[in-house]
Amino acid sequence: MLTVDNINLYYGAAQALRGVSLKAEPGKVMCVLGRNGVGKTSLLRAMVGQYPIASGAITFDGADITGLKPYERARRGIGFVPQGREIFPLLTVEENLKTGFGPLKRDDRYIPDDVFSLFPVLQTMLGRRGGDLSGGQQQQLAIGRALVMRPKLLLLDEPTEGIQPSIIKDMARTLKRIRDERGLSIVVSEQVLSFALDIADRVLVIENGEIVRDDKRDTVDAAQVSKYLSV
Is the full-model pTM beyond 0.85? Predict the structure, then answer.
């Protein structure tokens, strides 16, 4: 599905990613764990093309997309839910969802029914402004907006940030349902180990811009991984 091969990324003289390689497989959830500032967001934004890499390669569905712009990657089927959600607070829920139409052909510019099946609350709030929603509802809106694009790969940057524990449980169930019903490849950056273990098929740990652990869900050593998450 998507392969990241030995990529390096810099901000000026500072190196944010160091020889990072990973492979996101269809119908699987991969979690990238790490503290703030270790490179998780840089990695996801490199995948979607927002941050250019200095070296290495990114391929998607067998094609090299390293040089493609973000909108070109979106057209190929890469959806992104950014950290902080980045919804439009003055637009209605319906208008926010329709901003996902950008990469779609004209005939595909409608909101799929399964968005409301996954997030029934959005259907009841279509006329409400996005900024009036709770944090959990805004996160549902951000994920729904990404799903409107009919992605093959869904990237989520710290989706549990600022979300109540009870909502986090609901989010975990929803992501697993998206994986199972849509067969999507999902990559999630996170700091919450319990959430990652609940949803992931594979868990990676990033530290100082490098992947330092790569484990299948059943072989994760929670005590060892926790050392990379504690402040």
Answer: yes
